[in-house]
Specification:
Elements lengths: L1 E5 L1 H23 L18 H17 L3 H15 L9 H13 L10 H6 L6 E3 L1 H22 L12 H4 L10 H4 L2 H21 L12 H11 L3 H8 L11 E3 L7 H22 L3 H5 L6 H11 L1 H8 L9 H4 L5 E8 L2 E4 L16 H10 L7 H14 L7 E8 L11 H7 L3 E9 L2 E6 L5 H6 L2
Antiparallel strand pairs: 1-2, 1-3, 4-5, 4-6, 6-7, 7-8
Length: about 450
């Protein structure tokens, strides 16, 4: 006997999740210079970045509408592995969710209602499907990711000390708003540090117990908090959509023969069995497990084999490790770096950090991750830094048709592991100091150091 439910929540998930993917593609289409070089080694390298985005947008619209759904879902999977799977500098967590969900979307009947195909086949919102479809999607989209991240968090002095939320939330260019009113209360800071760990450690198993399922809807509140706090809105909303599948709905028990899409269910089970070894091998790379695994044995050899193939596994299966907001992310990158432009005596701060250091939505998502963790801490004299800076300025700067003048400025944000009140306000109130000057025009890129010979040294300076 199986638990069967109406297919309506699967349709809501299809529309919501792939709409987020559509917004991701629209954002990419507006900033082609920042990512074009990333996919040049792939078969898409000969196409215009705008054309690539338009292809992806058309495919996703077909998926959202449920038009020739299976073919559209397959094309979407190929597209995601070719574009999102090729990103390295610009990759971020949601890319793997897009790839993994696009793979399973080929087999899960997300088009059973509220779709063009549903009208053609006479399906409606009451068409019975196994509730396993919904639970498997939640397990893959957030459950496994949550559970694996716990092994990284418990090995982190900041997270296992209850300050895992407070640490990034007090770095100005890592947040959208100043919510010191909450962070300055120790009980709130520690509660927001421990609640995610408890949720992440248990959700993967708890959702399979029907009586506990509603309890995990509280996890949606954490993602709403992420949406308004950190500059990763599409990640926050994309993960939030999975909780739609946990909303209460009518359930009945029926024989397997009475449940529609039995073949799809079997194919999903087979796919789960095939990818499980790769997920296990990837999870074994977590620091807590790696450090407590003695000697060399068959398990460590298997872990090392999956590590050697990690790029293929992440590109085609969407399986990757998930150390998010760890100590090492901020220990050497907690300083706030901004780029400002002078036009007619007026100073304008480019997206990423404003005059007090706060982040914004214009350089959000993958661009924030890239800027914060892979760009601004590089040695300022390196060719990679200057090439990336040029693309960043052409993408986010304001062109007046002449020579533009920019200043790279920084402010010291000493890394703290111990909780202390007023830290975010204190960091915002600190003054910037100029690190370098840039003059930019179509055929001009002049870069001049102001003080420190190395930006990494400047970031560490106190």
């Amino acid at each position: 006997m199986l638990l069967i439910t109406p297919a309506q929540s699967l349709a809501f998930f299809r529309i919501g999740f792939f709409s987020i993917l559509l917004l991701e593609l629209i954002q990419l289409s507006m900033t082609p210079l920042m990512w074009w070089h990333e996919i040049s080694p792939t078969w898409l390298g000969g196409l215009s970045p705008i054309l690539i985005c338009l292809i992806g947008i058309c495919i996703n619209i077909a998926v959202i509408l449920g038009y020739r759904y299976r073919a559209a879902a397959f094309c979407n999977y190929i597209f995601c592995t070719s574009v999102f799977g090729a990103f390295r500098d610009l990759e971020y967590h949601m890319d793997y969710v897009y790839i993994g969900m696009s793979l399973f979307a080929i087999f899960v009947p997300l088009h059973v209602c509220h779709s063009v195909d549903a009208k053609r086949n006479g399906w409606d919102k009451n068409t019975p499907v196994s509730d396993h479809f919904q639970l498997i999607l939640v397990s893959l989209g957030i459950g496994i990711i949550y559970f694996e991240s716990v092994f990284y968090k418990l090995a982190s002095p900041t997270w296992n000390g209850g300050r895992g939320y407070w640490m990034p939330a007090t770095v100005p260019d890592a947040v959208l708003i100043d919510h010191s009113w909450m962070l300055d209360h120790a009980w709130a800071a520690y509660a927001l540090g421990w609640l995610p760990i408890i949720l992440e450690a248990t959700l993967l198993f708890g959702i399979w117990v029907s009586r506990l399922r509603r309890l995990y809807l509280l996890g949606a509140l954490l993602h709403i908090g992420i949406l308004f706090t950190f500059p990763i809105p599409l990640f926050a909303i994309g993960e939030l959509i999975f909780f739609v599948l946990l909303l209460p709905k009518p359930q009945t028990r029926a024989a397997s023969a009475q449940c529609r899409f039995r073949t799809s269910r079997r194919l999903v089970y087979v796919l789960l069995i095939l990818i499980a070894p790769f997920q296990i091998g990837t999870s074994l790379r977590a620091k807590l497990l790696k450090e407590n695994m003695p000697g060399q044995n068959i398990v460590t050899e298997y872990r090392d084999w999956t590590t050697a193939h990690k790029h293929d596994v992440s590109q085609y299966l969407g399986i990757a490790h998930h150390p998010v907001f760890m100590d090492f992310h901020f220990a050497t990158r907690s300083s706030t770096v901004a780029v400002r432009q002078r036009i007619d005596g007026q100073v304008t701060y480019l997206p990423g950090a404003d005059e007090t250091g706060l982040g914004d939505l214009k350089a959000s998502g993958r661009y924030w991750v890239f800027r914060k963790f892979r760009f601004i801490h590089l040695p300022v004299t390196s060719q990679r830094f200057q090439d990336t800076l040029r693309n960043y300025l052409w993408t986010f700067g304001t062109s007046t048709g002449g020579v533009e003048t920019y200043e790279i400025v920084r402010k010291d944000d000493t890394f703290y592991q111990a909780w202390r009140p007023g830290l975010l306000t204190e960091r915002r109130n600190r003054a910037y100091e100029v690190v370098a000057y840039v003059r930019l025009a179509p055929n001009i890129f002049e870069f001049k150091l102001a003080q420190a010979p190395d930006l990494a040294e400047a970031l560490r300076a106190k």
